[in-house]
Every structure is written in structure tokens, then in C-alpha cells.
Please model this.
Amino acid sequence: MQPTCDCCSNLAVVHETIVVEGRRSEVHLCAEHAAERGYLLQGDGDSLLPAGLPLSKLLKKSAADPAAPAVSSTSARTPKACSSCGMTMASLRETQLVGCAECYRALEEELAILIGRTQEGATTHAGRHPMHAAKLIDRAAVRNRLTRDLREAVSREEFERAARIRDEMLALSDPSEAQ
Amino acid sequence: MNNPILPTIAGFDGADAPLGDCVLSSRVRLARNLVGFNFVSRASPEQLADVVHRVQSARLGGPFESAVRWVNVQSTTSLDRLLLFERNLISRPFVESTHPRCVAISADESTSVMVNEEDHLRLQMLAPGMQLRQLSERMFVFDGAIERSLEYAFHPRFGYLTACTTNVGTGIRVSAMLHLPGLALVQELEKVQRSARELHLAIRGFHGEGTDALGDFYQVSNQTTLGRSEQAIVEQFAGEIVPQFVAYELAARRTLLERDPAALDDRVQRALGILRSCRLLSFEESIKFLARVRLGVSLGRISGVPRHLIDQLLLAVQPAHLSRATGCALGNGRDDRGPRADFIRSSLR
Ligand SMILES: [Zn+2]
Ligand SMILES: [Zn+2]
Model:
């Protein structure tokens, strides 16, 4: 059985594994949402290639998991679920409600896509935070800035600069956070 | 609960509410969840009762320092539930759901905390007129005080975590209840609504989602909560959006006065005449005529009726408030039009 799109209930035709800082996450998109996110559908749709140079491809080169496939058009899998409350993206689509705080960690990339759609493209908090989160915040803020810079460097095809930023991101990630 | 919700109209006696001619009330709301519990829709009744217990035994501070009234919404009467709803202290879903939930209300009724609405906590502050800046400052102090005894669910990338992704990040919703009869009369309301949608604002009627624009009252609020700071969201509302709406509305009122003052006078005086003499009034009719009188009072075309009296009546003529004040029966099919007309007549004498 093929998984459904991260953004709607249609069958996904694009399947991508993104590795950022040694953490893998999967993206599944239907033709419509794939096109919206910059994937180019070639021919009659059975061969799919990302348009231009995707961020994920660049990240993958120096990332910890070189075996991760960039694009595979067939991949049977069990749907990812939150280990704490059991929520899947499919059940979220039905109820429109996230199950628990852990969902946001377990399904971070999937939720980021959904959040971007409901929040005019924003996926990063820029406001107040509880005192207990102060330490987390600073690192996250730096990481966010670096991610933005990296995207900019890639879009301008400044690959040396991109590689430098990439190294900075690797140095920033806390080893205790890696899975 | 032994003592009933009082029929006083605290928080709505704003005789000198800022921009009160066009802004009925301001509201700031924060959505928060506690760590260690599933969100409300995925929690068992036992867990939800636990959340209630946890919040009730925490020190909420701020406006609750001196006195706080807890209402067990699950076990209180349906009349009290509706009173709280009509007074904007709890939401429609909170009235109708059946799981363990409660609400804390400050002595002056300006602050309420719903426990186990869509999120574990919904903090809300309400004030007459345009007071979003003051409200939000007080809200952040309050939120900080609560955080000292309850740990909030927070994510370094997504911010404050909420059950619905439309609230994630700051969890803040700022809104203003606007009175725009001038724009409606010069038929420019649609244009203004369109531009509001382009600014990604939500526009709703008198009683929140799904109600139409009874009496030309419109509630505008922000739709996105992520990617901007709370201050930026509040500032956009307090500094740009609401003043812009008010400027359009005041311009429309000036146009009306210049174009045909007799027609305007007839409209507002006729409404006052009906309210002062008729014997049967439905809720919808009473809002419609009170809103017209409100316009007349704001423009100085009606004297002897203070605006804040009209604002109190807008609240008091709602079914549950009327039932509490006059003892008339409440419920589907009950005719409360007679008591409503009597109540308004005696108030406007
Ligand atoms: Zn889709
Ligand atoms: Zn979960």
C-alpha cells in the first residue's frame, strides 16, 4: 500500500527521505502538492525529479546517512506514528487536532509542512518562551538563521558558502539529540 | 455551585472606553498546554480531571491573586453555562461538550481561564473599547506568573504547542469587536471586508464563528500565530488595523450626516421609539434597534441615553441574561419577547 500525501488524503507520488543533521525524515506528496513545492513531474508522471537542485540533495552529500535515497517512486512502509499518543498524519487529517506535545517531535517534518500551510508559510516561532526553554531557544534560533542562510546560498548557487554553513550546522547539533 | 453567576455587567461599564464609538470591546487570548498530559481531544476523562485538579491547585496569581471564582462547567446548570457564554467568558464548544472542564473567573470578570477547552488552558482578558496594548501587557505578566507553577508544552522550533496548528507558536489571538453601522449604510462594508481578508484577518459576527453581522457588529482577529512575535501581532492590530477600520467608519458616518441628516435622524430616533414603546421584541430585533440607537448616541443625535447603557443592554437582552434578570423561562420554543420588551422599556425610560 502506498502512503498518502502529507498535505491531503490523495495518494503520494513523490517520496523523499531528507537527512538533516543526521536525522532522517520522510516526505510524501501527491502530484499537486509536489508541484506546489517545486518538484517537476516529467513525462507521464512515472518519472519524478525535483526541479533544480533540492536542498535535501546538498545536505545528503555530507550527512551521516549516505544510503538514504533521494527519490524513490515505490516504498511500502507502515505509517509513522507518535510513540506517546499513537497519532498518525492520517488521523490528524481526520480530526484536525494534534494528539499531544510529543507528536510535534515525532512528526516534526510532516507537521512543519502542515503548519506552513496554515501559518502563511511560517514554520518557526519568533515570540516569547517559557523560562525553562531558554537554553533550547538560543540554539534553535542560530540553527534557524543558518537554515535560512543555507537556503539562500543554494538558491544563488554559492556552493562553497553553503558547505561552510553546513559545517557550522553540524557543529551546532548536540550529539545527545541525535537519534 | 451555590451562588449563581451575578447579573452585573462588570467589564462592560466603560463609559469612557477608548475609541468606544466604534470599538465595543477588545480581547486577548493565549492557548497553552501542560507537559505530561495528552491534549484534550486525546485524553481520557481521568486525565482531564487530573488537569483540572493540577490547575486548580496551582497558584495562578495576577488578577486571581485576591479572589477567583471557579465554576465547574461540567456540573453547573445550563443557565449558568449560557450566562458565561453570553458574557464571552467561555466558548460555544465549552458550553456544549461533556468532559471534565472548568473556568476560573477574576473578581472583575476581566480575566478568565478555561481549563480543557480545545487546549488545556485558554487564558483570556477582555476590556471595553480599544485596549489591546494594555490587555496584552497584563496578559504576558499573568502568563509568566502561571508558568512559575505549571510547566507549558513548548518546542524550540514551533513555540507553544497547541492542539490545532492554527494556534501554534505564540498561541495568541487578539480581537476587537467593532461597530460599523456607517460603513454598512454607505454600502462600503463589503470593500472593507475584502481588504481585511487580504490582510489575513478573520471577520465574524456578534457571537463568534458562524454568526452573521447582527447589528453591524464585527469581530476581527488575527489568523496566524507563528513567525511573528506577540508584540508584532498586537502592534499590527492596535497600531494599524483597528485605527484603520475606525477611520473608515468615522468617514462613513460623516458622509451620512452630510448627505441626508434627516434620514439618519429618522433611522436612529425611530429605533429608539420602537425600543421605548413596543411590547414584543425578539433577541435579533432588539440587537438591531439597540445598534441603531448606539449610532445615534455616538453621533450626538440622541441625548439622554448614555452609550454604556446601550452596551450593557446589548449584553442583558440575550436569552440567559434576560432569564436571570426577569425570571422568564429559558429554552427552545419559549417566548421571551414580552419580558425582553418590558426590560428594555424600563431601562430606557
Ligand atoms: Zn496532497
Ligand atoms: Zn502524540
Observations:
- The first strand of chain A starts at residue 14 and ends at 20.
